[in-house]
Amino acid sequence: MDPYARADALVRTTLSLADASLRVSYVVDVARTWDVETFARTLDVVCERAEQAEAAAREALLAVVGALNSEAMQTTVQRLREQAVGESLLALERLVRAPFRSARSSDSTKPERPVDSGQGRALTLGERKSLARRPDRQTMERLMADPHPDVIRRLLHNSRITEDDVVRLAAKRPGRGDVLAEIARCTKWAHHPRVRMAVVMNPATPPEIAARTAGLLLRPELHLVVRSPGVPASIRAVCLEHLERRPPTEGHDNGAVH
After folding, report:
1. pLDDT tens profile 108-157
2. Which residues contact 217 (CB under 8 A, 6 or more apart)?
3. Is the backbone peptide bond immediately before 174 cis, with ω within 30 degrees of 0?
4. Using CA atoms, how far apart are residues 172 and 183, in angstroms rounded to an integer?
């Protein structure tokens, strides 16, 4: 089966799954089952089609990016990166690139204030993780400032958290790379355009995650990133490459994104 037929099959099977988490799990399973050469060539076709705004490929790419953002996939991503460079799979290379991380984009080193129990002592990590699951708005607001990714991971799955909350968390300056990585890995929120934009625009986002997420942006969103001096130059460069390959859109490029 050639890469184009495999890409068709990968997209079709991925989109046959209704749940976003199941789609990500399927792509992870494919990555573990297929040899890296086959997987890389297939993903390159999917990426090329997504860059040309093919709807099905773009939707499947959401699951691909979710899978590649997983911590367990770091070795696979590195192998894909090497394969993309070795075979000149340019569309895939843009997706798995590891951009240079400047000192300006490093995590916040400012000590975070411990979350207070209300009884004159700081809460332990275990207590904060437990509280993050409770549907208590006041507690959630306090935990939004928690620096530990385990707390944020649980908070992101709280039934009371809203898209506005997640966008505010992703847009926080100075940001924390491990917290932003958790947001990018959360299938519940990572597919929301506003959340994606906040992740890409935050200079503290790990550059490889920002670059992969940038591959999901629409033309008007790419314009915003390219024009933003607060975004690291390496990420703006990736977005410019994507922008050059996006087909023209009707109306104005800087119009509203839905």
Report:
1. 545 455 555 455 567 888 888 888 888 788 888 888 888 889 999 999 99
2. 196, 197, 200, 225, 239, 242
3. yes
4. 12
- CA 102, 106, 110 angle in degrees (round to 5)? 150
Report the distance separating Cα 113 and Cα 123, nearest Å.
11
The pLDDT tens digits for 232-241 are: 999 999 999 9
The tokens describing 239, both together, are 């977005």
Paired strand residues for 122: 116
Burial class (CB in 10 A: 0-12, 13-18, 19+), 250: exposed
> Would you say the C-alpha torsion 207, 209, 210, 212 has a positive or negative sign?
positive
- Phi, psi values for residue 63, rounded to 5°: -70, -35
Name 255's Cβ contacts closer than 8 Å, sequence gap at least 6.
Answer: 220, 249
Q: Which sequence spans correspond to the domains of the chain? A: 3-96, 104-245
